[in-house]
Amino acid sequence: MIEFFRHPLEIATSRLSEVILLFLMPFIREDVAIVAGSLLIVEHRLPQGLAFASLYAGIVASDVALFGLGRLAQRSLWVRRLIARPGMDRLGEFLRAHSVTAMVAARVLPGLIAPVYVGCGLYGVRWVVFGVTTLASAAVYLVVLLWITTQFGEGILSRVGYWSWIVALVLVTVSIGWMRTPPWGFLLRLGRSGLGGLRARGRAVFGAAASHGGMPPLKSRTIARAERIPTLIFYAPLAAQWIWLSLRYRSLSLPTVANPRIEVGGLWGESKGACLDMVSGSERRWLARYVTLTRRKGASAEEDGRNALALARENALDYPLVAKPDIGWQGYGVRRVGSEDELLEYVAAFPDDATLMLQELVNWDGEAGVFYARGADEATGRILSLTLRYFPHVTGDGTRPVRDLILEDRRASWKAGAHFGLQGAHGGLSPEELDRVPAPGEIVRLAFIGSIRVGGNYRDASEHITPALTARFDEISRSMPEFHYGRYDIRFASLDRLEAAEDFRIIEINGAGGEAISVWDPETPLRQVYARLFEHQRLLFEIGAGNRSRGWKPAGPLAILNAARHQSRLVTRYPPSS
Length: 578
What we know:
50% of the residues lie in helices and 11% in strands. The protein is an alpha+beta fold. It has three domains: 12-176, no CATH class; 226-285 and 364-391 and 456-568, no CATH class; 289-361, Dna Ligase, domain 1, CATH 3.30.1490.20. The chain is globular, with a radius of gyration of 27 Å.
């Protein structure tokens, strides 16, 4: 009798656990949950109706949880501080005007559902509007996607077996990061123009003159193929080569001694101030002036702010100046500071027990990355690449406001979330700046930083590398103890003067983790991008091997992980960049 009931009991227990799992998975990721539901249907483990009901209940419940979190933030200051980010007020204005459009778009676009649904609760979208929209959009989305994945599974994947489902789940998981930031440009155009605004029209305006003083005119603002590739996929071949080189050279962390005087070689977490401090003698004349200040744990923001003001005065750093983290990446936390009040505000927002840098603002539009390498046994080094960095901008036509110029420019629209201030890591333009109608031909700078993170334009300028420029940077590099590999970020007056190795200032020195940013030039074929990156990584290991033979001992992999973790934690706590 016991044997008679055992099998049905096992089936019921298994089915219940699968139903519960399908209900909970949308709280983590909806598309992965739907693929999992399709797998259970195709393998005849769950009836289609039961799988649909479990998924639908889980999707709606997760939506309500996000909305409820936003409503809770209205009443709880602690919750609001936990979820609120700079720029959310601007998101609230948009959601109040376009709540249904935003919710429908967020359902199908990666990266939007959490900020949009929490924002709906936080900024007072009515329960009935939210409820009807989420019930309807979830039903349509689930029916369509579940049917597609189930048909795909029954027609193809079930013939191949479980491995194909694993591949499908991996592909869906990777697709989560396909867009590095939510597609705000798409959503903003949709809210402004409806279906007619689904695409940026590419009506970019270009002035007759160069947009950046001392640099060639930028004829196009396209998006590089490399930029469109998700980070994990883009760097996967380099990770494979790293493993192969590690086996060849018998060390996983050999690059940490490419620059043995810098923490883990400068792969991650190196101090910008410490790198600049390494430049010695007469070569320091090429540095932009700077000072550093560590926010003391337990000290008040007012006290640290007064210390920052005193440091700026003592070192004759006039306003505007640049405030930046001492440990940073991709311009996170870098801000133009125009007054003492703005400096006090920046210091107050900076994390405790972290170091910031105050640096003179070099008033030249020209900006470039100079990538340098010198073998362990070589007397002189060489410049591997020179890349011009154009800050993100649009050009006025006398009729359209800045916000429309951004949305109708493919590249500017690509980073619209940053420019509209919808991302916590970047402040963006003010509403007044977005609504202003610039004069015909007027260059409107969209960000102070030129990082690719906010839409900076990079152009390979290796043809402008001259013997004079190579000699200058070799002298600077050899003035630093054991500096063999890295990138100098510089400001310069003009290309002619840069070719003559004059009228430039170094604003940052990056170690082994600084890549040749020429790979982000849209004109560089993807095959050439990887050829350069593979060659540079091979050279990095080669230099490390040479220094190891000279007695330097590589740091362990754990040291690299700790440095990377420390940098990542700091980056999330910095004030928004500008």
